[in-house]
Write a structure and sequence with these properties.
Order of helices and strands: HEHEHEHEEEEEHHEHEHEHEH
CATH superfamily of the largest domain: Nitrogenase molybdenum iron protein domain
Number of strands: 12
Strand content: 5-15%
Strand order of the largest sheet: 2-1-3-4
CATH topology of the largest domain: Rossmann fold
Amino acid sequence: MPMSVVRRRLLAGLIGLAALTALAVIPSPVAAEEPAKLPVVASFSILGDFVARIGGERVAVTTLVGPGGDAHVFEPTPADAKALQGARVVVVNGLGFEGWAARLVKASGTKASVVVASTGVTARAAAEDDHDDHGKGKHADHDHGKAKHGGHDHGAVDPHAWQSVANALVYVTTIRDGLIAADPVGRETYLGNAARYAEELTALEAEVRAAVASVPPGRRRVITSHDAFGYFSDAYGIQFLAPRGISTDAEPTAKAVAGLIRQIRAEKITAVFVETMTDGRLVERIAKETGVRVGGELYADALSPKGGPAPTYVDMVRHNVKLLTAAMIGS
C-alpha cells in the first residue's frame, strides 16, 4: 500500500479518535435541576389540603394534626418542633383554634413566617350559640364567651370559619399571599393555582346552596356531637344543635342533654349525626331516647385519610352536605 494512503488513513483515525475524546469530556445534556421545594408546615389537615392545592409542586407540606386528628386536644412533640425549625412558612387557622400553636412556634425557635389563614374572615361570636334547653338560641349551662376547654382558649369567637365555603375563599387568598411573600419566584404558579382552586370553590358554594334549597325550611335542623358548624349554619340557613360546646373535649351538662332531647321530640328533628373525631356514644344515646336514626358521620375539624369519603376539603363539604340533606328531608 502506498505510504501516502497509509498516512491519510492514520490521520483520519487520529482525527476520529480526537473527536470521540472530545465528545467524552462534553457533559451530556440533562434536565435542569428542580428548584428546592418550599417547606411549609400546616397546623391541621384541612389547611394542609389548602396549601397543597395552592402551592402545587413548589411546596413540600408537613401537616402536624393529620387526617382524622383532633387539633383541640393535640399535644405537640419534639418532632413537631423540629418540623417547624426546617420550615419557611407555618400556616395556622387562628381564631384560637390551635391553643398550642403560639407556644410551639416560640419553643421551636423557627424563623419561618407565620400565616394566619383566617385573616380577613369576619369571625362569628362563640356566644351566639344555637340552642338552650328551650330552643331559644343559647346553650344551656355552656359559657363559651371566654371559656377554656382543656387548655384551648377560643376567646370569644368560633374558630371553625372554614365551614363556610365563602370563608374558604378568604383562606385561599391569605395562604396564596403568604406563599408568594416567602417564595416570590413562584408567584405565577401560586396565582394560577389559587385562581383555579377559587373557581372550584365558587362552584362548590353554588352546589351547597342548591342542595340546602331542596330541603323545606321547617326541616333544616340538625343535631351534631359538637358545636363546629356555626359558620355553615349562618351561611346556609341550617340550625345546628349540639350537646357539646365549641371544643370536642368540653363535656355537656345533664340539663343541656335533657333539654336537647325535649327539643328533638317537640320539633320532630330527623337529622342526628356524630362527628368522626368525637365519642359518638352521647349522640347515639340521644338518638335512642328520641327514636331518631343517626344519619352518619360528619367531618368537621379534620379530613379523612386517602381512600375515605373526605380526603380533601371539597370532598369533605360534598360528603357533609349529602348526608345532611338526606337526613333533613328524611330520606
